[in-house]
């Protein structure tokens, strides 16, 4: 299931990146295009990270990934989603949730580090 969710994230990241590059370019400001690009970059990085977590769950099942996966996935929605909606011209107040998404992504990676250290002992 983890790999399937990761693959869906990656497909969506490609679609959103293409939309930003082709469909949004003529309609958005430089600032909005920057938000879109940042959202797409982070979406790709973290979707690839989720794919690695999914593979890791198969290779090293002793390291629990569920909490990390969920924190990162929710972080993607908050961080990238808020940047995407701002880039589409929706209220900038939605940018207030961007740091929450970033904090969730960071927490997901830190939880993974914690579990990996515990496993390494």
UniProtKB/TrEMBL annotation:
Q: Which UniProt keywords apply?
A: Membrane, Transmembrane, Transmembrane helix
Per the record, what is one GO cellular component? membrane
The record's InterPro entries line, in alphabetical order, gives: DUF423
Entry's localization field: Membrane
The record describes its membrane topology as:
Multi-pass membrane protein
Asked if the keyword S-adenosyl-L-methionine belongs to this entry, the reply reads no
Q: Where are the transmembrane segments?
A: 42-60, 67-87, 93-117
For this protein, the record's Pfam families field holds: DUF423
Q: Which family does it belong to?
A: Belongs to the UPF0382 family.
Q: What is this protein called?
A: DUF423 domain-containing protein
